Amino acid sequence: MPVSPPPAHHDHATDDGTTIALDLRALPAPEPMMRALEAADALAPGQTLELLTPLLPTPLLDLLSGRRLHVRAEMLPAGGARVRIHRPDDDGPTGA
Amino acid sequence: MARLALDQAPPASLPRQFLLSAPLWGVLAGVLLLVDGDVALRTRWQPATLALVHVFTLGVFGNVMFGSVLQFLPAAAGVRVRGGVRLGRLLHAVFNLGVLLLVAGLHEGWRGALRGGAVLLPLAFATLAGMTMPGLCVAAGQRLLRAGIGAAIGFGVLTALLGALLALALVDGTTLSMAALVDVHASWGVLGWIVLLLASVARIVMPMFQGTAAMPERAQTLWLASVLLMLPAAAWWRWARDDGRWLLATVAVHVALFAGAALWLQWRSPRVRRAPLLWSWRGGLIALALAAVLLTGGARGAVLAATLGLGIALPLLLAGMALEIVPFIGWIDLHRRCGRGLQLPGVQRLLPDSDKLGVLLAQWPLLLLPAAALWPSPWLARAAGVALACAWLGTWSALRGVHRRAEAFVAALPQHP
């Protein structure tokens, strides 16, 4: 019987509420990619999303590159990657 | 670094092209068995047997592995793949034409076709190496993964070169030590190229897709080092001393170790994901372990091991992964085409688990293959051929379903992107 994937670990950690943190490392593929893209699309102007992913999410970076977001990715020494996605103030959350 | 890799990566349609070609070769394997009957399953030296084996190893597995490498390296290993669209499409054409010529040449004894295959196939493997090796050497992190994939591609090139030599020897009637070269070619192809690539990728994809623990780095390193040491040494022993026992034992032990370790990881993981991929891999790994044991059982055991390993085990492992990769590629493609602001179907909706389960259930009649090798008879072999063709037709239809569903979604949009 299929089991539902474990929930992603959410951590809204900053003082001003502009950074959302998501740890997607425990999720089975392709959940990390789907959830990351969903969260990136829901970012409000000025907000930042910080993701921890099991691997460097190259296809995600590829898709985000067409969405007018500022994206920075780095490999972590212990494995996995940290991706920071920032939506500039002049962009809307649902605009194309 | 990531952007650099993306700019140079072949588009998603290229891996998909390889992955969708594989099932069609599987259908051809079924048709060949239907036509040739039990002749193809009696000894390894029959032209029909040689043709059937290469339909599997090159047409089916080769296409899945070329496509998976081109998809996996940039997506999961951060490796830059060189060449772009044109070279990738040319690679697909050269490789598949080479397989077609080789299979036709082996089956019908056509010298021109054998020569064509002997030129095109090493060229295709060398092109794959040229597209991937520079990136594998300079990428950051994932050293064990890159070492395993790089070594597998290296063995793939060597296997293709040895195969070309054997094909040309068939054409010219050269008095090479054929049996020894065939043994080396087969063992490097199966263990060095196919199983080594599978084991390297499995360390990443089993935790990702099946929820297992990862193979401990030390164990994987030891296994890889042992393969890299033993395969050339045992090949030299087979060639120089005319003794094939070490080569046979090297293949059997390393294949059994991989299959046993992967099964152990599946069984001991508390959070294993009970989905069709798990069952597909469990069945494939059990069959692979059994094939490794049978390999040591003399000439009849080798034919039985080949039908089990090439006809059932490796297809279950490789097709299982293809059923995960193709919808993922389709989903990425859909996002590229539609952009954001639309509720797009998830990966699971592009290829539901029920379809994957259907593909998996269609593999059961393939048990006719080892049965036909155990009790050779024309009708049993032909029944196995029908089962083979139907199973691969089902796989092709499921993979094509991804494209069908994505197109239906796009067509239903108010304005096509």
Molecular structure report:
- The complex is a heterodimer of chains A (96) and B (417).
- Chain A has 96 residues and is an alpha+beta fold.
- Chain A has a domain at 27-48 and 57-70.
- Helix content of chain A is 19%, strand content 27%.
- Chain A has helices spanning 31-41, 58-64; strands at 9-11, 19-23, 48-53, 70-75, 81-86.
- In chain A, strands 1-2-3-5-4 form a five-stranded mixed β-sheet, covered by helices on one side.
- In chain A, a hairpin with a 7-residue loop joins strand 1 and strand 2 (19-23).
- In chain A, helix 1 packs parallel to helix 2.
- Chain A is globular.
- The model of chain A is unreliable at 1-8 (pLDDT under 50).
- By secondary structure, chain B is mainly alpha-helical.
- Chain B has a single domain (2-399), classed as Cytochrome c oxidase-like, subunit I domain (Cytochrome C Oxidase, Chain A), CATH 1.20.210.10.
- In chain B, 82% of the residues lie in helices and 0% in strands.
- Chain B contains 15 helices and no strands.
- Chain B has helices at 2-8, 13-36, 47-77, 84-108, 111-138, 143-172, 178-210, 217-241, 245-268, 276-294, 298-338, 347-350, 353-361, 368-374, 378-411.
- The two termini of chain B are 30 Å apart.
- The chains are: A alpha+beta (96), B mainly alpha (417).
